[in-house]
Amino acid sequence: MQLSAWMTTVAFCLTAGLAESAHAQGNWDVVLNGRAIHVNAAQKWNEDNWGLGVEREFNPTGRWVKVALANGFKDSCGEPSYMAGGGLKRRFRLFSDDLYFDVGMIGFLMTREDVHHNRPFPGALPAVTIGTRRVALNLTYMPNSVVDHVTKANLKDPDMKGVYFLQLKFDASLFSPRARRRAHWLAEAGE
Prior knowledge:
Elements: H1 3-25, E1 28-38, E2 51-58, E3 64-74, E4 80-94, E5 96-111, E6 121-131, E7 135-143, H2 144-151, H3 153-156, E8 162-171, H4 177-190
Antiparallel strand pairs: 1-2, 1-8, 2-3, 3-4, 4-5, 5-6, 6-7, 7-8
């Protein structure tokens, strides 16, 4: 089995199987990849990086939060791309224990068609998260030097000055059967 197919299978199984158990543990999240912003790009790049993944936080109530993650998405060329890795973020509480801001680094193995024909390669990028326990926004930045070194995209688009990636992160318990029953009950009560 190819590594990219294996990573997709793992991400799907984790996403599908964790929703109910996530409620008890409270540490699993479903990640929706969605947007890339190619800074100052002259070429047309795929900025709709739709995909799905999972993220697990370890010690989410502490100052230092370790994360493990895996996801698949459409890359900037519109091709399937897969990644898995982990990182460390410093968590800052904002106004309450529920609202937070994280800043840190994510290390990963990734596959891309335009980089060694989907053979895994390592990477590390800065990462920021802002949100609550239930919903958050992940932001990652790939500086111009990394874009040029890894993907050689600057050969096609020398004006590009880096890429921002945006993801929405949802507590997996929001997708459990219990959460759907509760939402249905609330909708009926509001009628």
